[in-house]
Amino acid sequence: MRATWKGSISFGLVSIPVKMYPAAIKREISFKLLHAADGGRIKYKKVCEKCGKEVSKNEIVRGYEISKNEYVILTDEDFEKIPLKSVKNVEIKQFFDPSELNVIYYSGFYYLVPDKGGEKAYCLLREAMRETGSMALGKMGMRGREYLIALKAFDGGILLSQLYYVDEIRNPAEIPGWNAKADFNEEELELAKQLILAMKKPLRLEAYRDEYREALMKLIEAKLAGREVTVAEEAEAVESIMDALKASLSAVKSEH
Amino acid sequence: MASDDWFSAKIKPMLAKKSEPFSREGWFYEVKWDGTRCIAFVDVERERVRLQNRRLMEISYRYPELTSSLLEFASSNAVFDGEIIVFSGGKPSFQLLQQREHVDDRMRIEILSRKIPAVYIAFDLLYDDDSGWLFDSPIEERREKLGGVARKNRRCVISEVFTEDGIKLYESAVKMGLEGIMAKKFGSKYLAGKRSDLWLKLKKKNTADCVIVGWLEGEGERAGKFGSLVLAFYDNGELVHAGQVGTGFTKEFIDWFYEKLRNIEVERLEVKNLPEFRRKVHWVKPVYVCEVEFLEMTKDEKLRAPVFVRLRSDKSMEECTPRDFV
């Protein structure tokens, strides 16, 4: 597995070289688009709406749409004027108590491991966070964006959580019907509570699976079955090679 | 220390130097299996298996079919050194192995594990429950214990030891289309991560591992794809141009790899010793390593007549040193 990102964490005076790996495994089934008639792959072309011509990468600029058909154009040079500061470095800005961070701010998870030479400082940071029950807050630059991130001691390593900025989270009051109110009596509430407690049991996430994906997968496998290449030669292939070599050696012996 | 420390150990495989074929007292030989080097940690008690490649990366998830086979293979807890191979037409197939190596989608892995299953060939034993770690035991003792611990099955076998006539064995192996043989010195310890004179690879063809640093546009049949790959060695922290390779690819590989290359294109790349290119070079991030065969090294340290063999996802850029193959 390749690291998604390599860089360093600066913590006080030390800079810890680290590598980052995605925590989640993509398991959704993706499909390629094919031409039904001949099975060819469908290709996307970038075509200019105005002149109808296909355009190449270096003929394309970015425009920020202010109002319909009115754009502010940004070139590569413009982007270079505001360099991402923390590109290869996560600077820890502060530590905090995990209970202060609402789940709604988490947007993605990555595992962080020490890169060459960073082992000691990495372990120190992890243990110190664990023993003080603290998480770290910092910023990192990746794929042309500046991310807010949090670090936490997790299992045998450090978990890096990408966070939403506060202005990226919608105020729920904007959602129609959010502060719903209705009348119910004590008895009804008691009944609902009893039902909940009856259904309450230790959490075993592994018992829940994506059944639609599994069914889709079975369907694909069934369609593949007719085309299966039967590989009868497994270990036998190895042994027949070794046997043939043995035979060639004993042939030499008997010649003498 | 926890009792299952052996299971989570990281082990750099012992490496071999290249040599001309020979027959000598005090050495034994075996087939040089060319696939993916793999240290297999098999915990029969807790029914778990860890597969680690030469870059110390976990590759177990890529070969789900080997987990149950290795649990059958080992009669007690053990750590094996060996090679993962995919066979086609009775011979190891790099192309099929490549298909297994570059898939991350769990479902496609499942399908491929049935369509083109892999075989594990064990040639060394590094740990067993009775003896503990065996790095300091002589190789003949390790091989004997290997025979005692392992029971072959459909997908797992022990590589056989040949004790005589290295030259004849080499010739037969080459005739059978194999790359060559290994020679190992009796009495030698397991030197993890070391390339020593105790293990020698006897093979005819020169091969080198190179970093892919760019590509040139193809023509004719390859129009709209790459025609050749620009290669470099990694020498003292710098990329040094090694040549271009334009043959040895299958059409499927070109289609597939072209997409990969497009995704990692960069504006420029620092590469030493570059020739004058008559055509535009598309530089790429130096993340792919490939193995090439070549006739010889020219005076200015470039590959003469290189032919693409396969991608080596199990090797890192740092391993592509210009002198590694001598």
Description:
The complex is a heterodimer of chains A (256) and B (326). Chain A is α+β, with helices and mostly antiparallel strands and 256 residues long. Chain A is built from five helices and nine strands; from the N terminus they run ββββαββαβββααα. In chain A, the strands form two sheets. Chain A has a seven-stranded mixed beta barrel. A two-stranded antiparallel ribbon of chain A has the order 3-4. Chain A starts with a strand and ends with a helix. With 326 residues, chain B is of the alpha+beta class. Chain B has two domains: 11-203, D-amino Acid Aminotransferase, Chain A, domain 1, CATH 3.30.470; 206-319, Nucleic acid-binding proteins (OB fold (Dihydrolipoamide Acetyltransferase, E2P)), CATH 2.40.50. Chain B contains six helices and 20 strands. Chain B is globular and about 65 Å long. Chain A binds chain B through residues 1-2, 25-27, 29-30, 217, 220-221, 224, 228-229, 231, 233-235, 237-242, 244-246, 248-249, 252, and chain B through 31, 57-58, 85, 87-91, 104-107, 110-111, 114-117, 119, 121, 152-157, 159-160, 162, 164-165, 168-169, 172-173, 176, 178, 287.
